[in-house]
From TrEMBL:
Domain O-methyltransferase C-terminal, residue spans: 3-128
GO-annotated biological processes: methylation
PROSITE patterns, alphabetized: SAM_OMT_II (PS51683)
Gene3D superfamilies, sorted: Vaccinia Virus protein VP39
InterPro entries documented for this protein: COMT-like, COMT_C, SAM-dependent_MTases_sf
Record keywords, A-Z: Methyltransferase, S-adenosyl-L-methionine, Transferase
Name of protein: O-methyltransferase C-terminal domain-containing protein
Classification via Pfam families: Methyltransf_2
Keyword Transmembrane helix: no
Keyword NADP: no
UniProt-recorded Gene Ontology molecular function terms: O-methyltransferase activity
Length: 147
């Protein structure tokens, strides 16, 4: 734990209502804020790092570019963006990511993506892919930097 770290949770009004209660219950009001946000319009400005977890797979490429471009506008030059998503591995082996790809398409119109597809989204939104960090779970942490 890092007791000096501060954060902002930015999400829809219904999520922020619940988040505010959790922040209070944990006693971290001085270090964490809950802010209403529509990432299709504007994202809070000036943080050192931004974390998006399971956001992009909900949306088709055009909407992802809007979200990422708004994030790019909000970021400082030295900020990093961390994206937590499944990354479809190359080849034709069965995987949870491929199953979820179909599920996301049917339910939200979104999709899971390959590394190349993510890189295309990031580059077209003003980012440079830095690295993909595998986790013990089925998701990866994709680190990108603002260009």
């Amino acid at each position: 734990a890092n007791p000096l770290m501060e954060g902002i949770v930015a999400d829809t009004p219904s999520v922020i209502q619940k988040t505010g209660k959790i922040i209070q219950a944990q006693g971290i009001e001085g270090r964490c804020q809950a802010v209403e946000c529509d990432f299709f319009k504007k994202i809070p400005f000036g943080s050192d790092a931004y974390l998006m977890s399971n956001i992009l797979h909900d949306w088709p490429d055009e909407q992802c570019r809007i979200i990422l471009t708004n994030c790019h506008r909000a970021m400082k030059t030295e900020s990093k963006l961390l994206v937590v998503e499944m990354v479809i591995a190359p080849g034709n082996e069965p995987s949870v990511a491929k199953l979820l790809d179909l599920e996301m398409l049917v339910i939200t119109g979104g999709r899971e993506r390959t590394e190349a597809e993510f890189n295309n989204l990031f580059v077209s939104s003003g980012f440079k892919p830095s690295r993909i960090i595998p986790t013990k779970e089925s998701v990866c942490v994709i680190e990108v930097i603002r260009v």
